[in-house]
Amino acid sequence: MQTIQANNYPIYFNEKGYEALNLHLKETKYSNLFIIVDSNTNELCLPNFLPYLETDLTIEIIEFEAGEQNKNIETCVQIWNVLTELGADRKSLVINLGGGVVTDLGGFVASTFKRGVDFIHIPTTLLSMVDASVGGKNGVDLGSLKNQIGVINVPKMVLIDTQYLDTLPQNEMRSGLAEMLKHGLIYDKSYWEKFLDLKAIDFADFDELIYRSVEIKNEIVSQDPTEKNIRKSLNFGHTLGHAIESYFLENDNKTTLLHGEAIAVGMILESYISMHKKLINQEEYIQIKSAIKSIYDDILFDENDIKPILELLIHDKKNEYGNIQFALIEGIGKIKINQSVENELILDAFQDYKS
User: Fold this and answer.
1) Residues carrying CATH 1.20.1090.10, the chain
2) Domain 170-202+228-354: CATH architecture, name and number where available
């Protein structure tokens, strides 16, 4: 697969990425190399990655406990302290080997340590391959509020090797698939239609679907790196999806949702809103709802859940001047950003989701 050129960094695929990484290590005079992993990727992915490395640099592995609940500033402080103790300096390189939590947090750690050191993303989950590692967003959660603290800063390169997907359970694959569905809904109708019958997908060709998803995200981000305009389209399903994800994360009596599971619900709810704003027709909405519900289990909401979820919307990063802003689809494959939505319509969307 051809290398994708993003804003000031390349995205490599499979073997070509390791060649580029080793050439970069050879040509750049780094003082030492730090690999940030979580407890899952340390066990499952690091043993596959290390044999590809060709370098005489001192390599240090920094591990933190896996899970969204650890994507916080406390984990960053621990890693900053370890970097300091191990002699990291401005000429150090950080490689983030892991899923979205690792690439988000590791990119933030590297971007802020000594005002910024070079870093490289090697995503190991479907979600991080098609979404988290691409676009330069790095950050952590503030309590249960998603991605409230962060920076936009690009890596030296992204290396996508789909062999790491062999380590993933099915629910993690479905989580990443949600972002691929989103890319079709907001940008490419023919791409969306490929997922309408999952049984018909030849998973031997799944690399090509991943490639197209990365291509779509990069095309959008390249037009608007700092999210002033069209990049907001990537937030479809995320305004309500992030609120749902945060609510389930902070409630002990709820089972924590994977990111894609929450976004799948968000896409159904925001498609319903799009229909009632006459941006899509009923047939399109039913197609979207049916396709997503055929892949993801229903999430159960009771009457006491909806109000606190709506209250969490006020913390959404896309809000401007106190107004909640939605990105809604305007026909499948197109998007309309900066849309205000009244609470009554959101409540109706939840009722329809449950029906």
Assistant:
1) 170-202+228-354
2) Up-down Bundle (1.20)
230 in Cβ contact with 330 (< 8 Å):
no
Label residue 22 exposed, middle or buried (CB < 10 Å: 0-12, 13-18, 19+): middle
> How far apart are alpha carbons 204 and 331 in whole angstroms?
30
pLDDT of residue 321: 46
- Fold classification of 4-167 (topology level): Rossmann fold (3.40.50)
User: What tokens does 292 get?
Assistant: 């997503």
What is residue 320's predicted lDDT score, i.e. its pLDDT? 58
Residue range(s) in the chain whose domain bears CATH number 3.40.50.1970: 4-167
Strands (DSSP E) contained in the chain are 4-6, 9-13, 33-38, 59-64, 93-98, 118-123, 137-142, 145-152, 157-160, 326-329, 335-339
Q: What is the largest CA-CA distance in the chain?
A: 61
pTM: 0.94
DSSP assignment letter at 47: H
